[in-house]
């Protein structure tokens, strides 16, 4: 026997069964995907699917060279001719914009887009943090808001409501202003942080040089006092940015959506300006952010398109579903309607009945292989099927079938094959 080969660290298999350290099943995930399709439709968003591999330059230019995501976490390699550097996408916004610019989608009208799929970041794996993880993302391109900013939040709130997790998520918002406002704040912040350089940790010292705003994001308890007293970006906002921010907050009030203003919320990707937000939970340990996003008005221009305002967000599916699994609701319907059992003599009739029932709209799981009817009944129960159909020797001979309601309501009945579909339809709908 050859040696077993294991999955890459931090990358999960999604199985029909719950695993010890990964509780999500493929049926649960699929039920979520169904919810997402209906939800995005409800808000008038269209799906975009882009490749998982892109040129590395796309992420360097959009997410920013100094970010952890680009600086240390990307899976990057040279294509075979060695001249082209490719990376597995660490997020979806950059790819989405690349495609929008490439296909000139904003030529005629703004776009409301969504996507879903795997993303890759070489982070230290732990519960809720993986190296291959999945996002649902939404991007609204060509709207300068703040109405669309509020729509982003309304969309999230609508999904949380449907999944039964509204009570476990907190909305944090902030406004990062425009480039000039950030530059003015940055000078003040750097001067302030330099005064406290002695107590900064290594990470913060590095960020002080590369992206001082991210120092405020530090989780180091020793730095909290310094960070709390630091100059606030909000105090550097000009009239327009403030009007945008206030308009956004007013619409959240109209929608009845509660929020917490967090002046230290900066996000981990460099492309943001004006509105930023995160939905956090205290139920998932250290991996508290389930969904995050914001405005990135300059990015389409930087990627070679005609400048247009834009905003979006993405949620981590694993984190979200771990929360839903434990605290929310999501109906899975993986169980078949009917489990078909047969004895050798009844095989042909059983196969026939199964395909007739499928054609009539039932989900039918056909038992394969020879086993005692007793064992087949155990399998039928374990499958979660509502009904069992038994085609033994007698039934095969008489052109009948025995139907059993596994939930007990209708008991068991042997009927002529011609009545099978009618009876089961009646039972199912009663
Ligand atoms: P992000 O904050 O980097 O934003 O990621 C969004 C969400 O993806 C996070 O809140 C988290 O739930 C999930 N996530 C990130 N990294 C991991 C990981 N290693 N394991 C599990 N889940 C993870 C973005 O990606 C932006 N593109 C969002 C956006 C869209 N902004 C504008 N439009």
Automatic annotation (TrEMBL):
Gene Ontology biological process: histidyl-tRNA aminoacylation
Binding site for L-histidine: 91-93, 121, 135, 139, 267, 271-272
All copies of domain Aminoacyl-transfer RNA synthetases class-II family profile, residue ranges: 29-336
SUPFAM superfamilies xrefs: Class II aaRS ABD-related, Class II aaRS and biotin synthetases
Enzyme class: ligase
Domain of life from the UniProt record: Bacteria
Primary location group: cytoplasm
InterPro entries xref list: aa-tRNA-synth_II, aa-tRNA-synth_II/BPL/LPL, Anticodon-bd, Anticodon-bd_dom_sf, His-tRNA-ligase, HisRS-like_core, HisRS/HisZ, HisRS_anticodon
Single GO molecular function: histidine-tRNA ligase activity
Subcellular location: Cytoplasm
GO cellular component: cytoplasm
EC number(s) given by UniProt: 6.1.1.21
Keyword Cytoplasm attributed: yes
Pfam families for this protein: HGTP_anticodon, tRNA-synt_His
Family: Belongs to the class-II aminoacyl-tRNA synthetase family.
Subunit structure as annotated in this protein's UniProt entry: Homodimer.
Entries under HAMAP family matching the protein: His_tRNA_synth (MF_00127)
Protein name: Histidine--tRNA ligase
Species whose genome carries this gene: Neisseria elongata subsp. glycolytica ATCC 29315
